Please model this.
Amino acid sequence: MKTFLRLKQFYWPYQKYFLGSILFLFFVTAITVVYPIILKFTIDDVILSGEFHLVPYVALGFVGIMVIKGIATYYHQFFGDLFGIKTVYELRNALYKKLQYLPFRYYDNAKTGDLMSRLTADVEGFRFFLSFGFAQALNLVLLVGLSLGIMLYFSVPLALLTLAAMPFLIVVVYRFDKEVHPAFKGIRKSFARLTTKVQENISGMNTVKSLSREDYEINKFVDNNGDYKDNYIQTSNIWAKYFPLMELIGHFCVVMLLGFGGFMVINNNLEPGELVAFFSLVWYIIGPLMNLGFIINTFSQSKASGERLVEILDEIEDIKDSDGAINVERLKGHVQFKEVFHSYNGEEGMVLKNVSFDAPVGKVIGLIGATGAGKTTITQLISRFYEADKGEILIDGKNINEYSIQALRKNIGSVLQESFLFSCSIRDNISYGYPDATMEQIQDAARRADAHEFIMELPDGYDTILGERGMGLSGGQKQRIAIARSILIDPSILIFDDATSAVDMETEAKIQAAFQEVMKGRTTFIIAHRISSLMHADEILVLEDGEVRERGNHEELLANQLGIYRRIYNIQFKDHQTITEAESKKVSI
Ligand SMILES: Nc1ncnc2c1ncn2[C@@H]1O[C@H](COP(=O)(O)OP(=O)(O)OP(=O)(O)O)[C@@H](O)[C@H]1O
Model:
């Protein structure tokens, strides 16, 4: 019940559809139980009493009642559907919104396929219960209640006989629910694993094919698919075990009814029409009770689904605006780190240790160091993707927590090693961060990113539709679109995180030239492994194990013959020298 209470805010605003559906359900149920009464009347008061002239009227009345039942059924289902559909519309929106604001920490461990299945299959599971399951449960209570009432009215002893089997049925149903609920949870989890597998496989198809791991992937999928199948079989086993038992109890009731009821008719303690009516009424009890398995099934599924939805909704958004957060339009871009420490998973794993630096407005800061040294972490802290454990990060003299997250991030443009382009036009990709940009502004950003020329050579120019992964464009072209996208928001802080590592030297030179143009007047952080990418920086921070080991400009750092920077330079310079020598040998041959 906790799950349903937690999700109340989504379905309660649509209570009018729910109440409408329930109202018509009352009609449907009432008309349903009128049917055996008409039957009793037809047999006892028309046929056995010889009043045959009444038959056409009874038949007409019966047809009329059935028409009303049809109309009531239509509205009951229609309102029930509306209730479910409108609720999950709100719920899906809320879940999606929540996903947009969940911190990066959440996505570090989240699986795309699992989230997809929550937003689709689980939301549907919940809707199904709202639209049908609940009404079925209510229908059960109403139909059983009314039928029992009428039966008690006709004959108390016979009605009690029917009631006698109820405790057994309740025990069976209780045990069924106990077993089937975890089984359904298992199915949902297994389905999420299956979709995760498919999603990861499609996203990583390049790696799969290049390492010829198709067979391995197929086997893994077969395992996941097998697990899903086994989960379903296990659930079917539970179902198969309990359903016949429920049915058996139901049929036992009918046998008792026919035996004892027939005996009462023979002894003139019950009218023949009443026995026939009883026979119909008892099926109105047995039928819904046999359906109880399905209702519990729907309820269990929706409870399991609802729990998985609540898990997302209750996830903590720990990175959010502080009270009175400043909504500044434009930051100047003066970035300062003061004794910053950071870990992703507790004290032991400090990935930044006592990092301090000052990046005045318009200056270029280079970050270099081995992989895992903490370069990206520094830039992620500036954007508040994660929060530092200790120390202070200031922009324009104020702690970054004092700015609203939106204001802060709107002033930071990032180009990553692999830029993500959406499956829409190039124009929309460039204007993603500034949807109101005019075509002139978009083209201007593209020109400054050295992207305009190649875009114009594409058949549809700026209207060219890109695939999910920027299909049809080279790595360098994708990067230049990403640069255009970052500069269109006119950020005061620019972050280039390994932005040229995936492209060839010539493209790198082109992108670097584009960088020079867009860096003017902005505080820029360049993360790179190649010294050539950041040698012109005003200050270069050399990181090792999360600590700044050396700092200074290119010349100053080179002067330290035993320094890390000098060592990196020597290795890269040697490579360069070897290549140049080989090239010149080739030419002389
Ligand atoms: N989201 C995360 N959760 C847990 N640990 C992380 C996370 N991101 C990075 N780390 C760890 O923090 C350390 C620093 O990572 P970071 O990405 O800052 O290094 P980097 O210097 O940018 O490396 P690279 O040059 O490979 O990009 C690494 O040990 C890394 O494993």
Observations:
- The beta strands are 335-343, 350-359, 364-369, 390-395, 398-399, 412-415, 493-497, 523-527, 539-544, 547-552.
